[in-house]
Write a structure and sequence with these properties.
By secondary structure, this protein is mainly alpha-helical. It contains three helices and no strands. It starts with a helix and ends with a helix.
Amino acid sequence: MSEEIADGHDQENWRSRAELAEAALAEARSTAADKLIRAELKAEAIRAGMVDLDGLKLLDLGEVTLDRQGEVADAPAVLAKLKRAKPWLFGQGVSSSTAVHAPRPEPPRMRHANELSHEEWLAARAALLRRR
């Protein structure tokens, strides 16, 4: 009889451990899905020209779902909706360049003779003498 009680206790122990493991697995999947959704939305927000990614906190992530490939379903539509509702969060669209503005062209700066090495000074002097 004590073996039956021990077997019943072992089964309950294994059952409770299995339930705990399933709960932990479900929580890990949920956390991973949330992180993936946030990463996908950040990438889409950068493409849409969002100035400050903190604006993503205004989105209701309960409406956002992942498709079978693990991508956010209609991420561009979600950001377009946010852009219509809060246009000040977005600037100009992002181009392939990371520079916001083209650098200003600066004329070449003349170097002072004290900044030249001896060889550079000799070459510059020779060039000046050839012009005469």
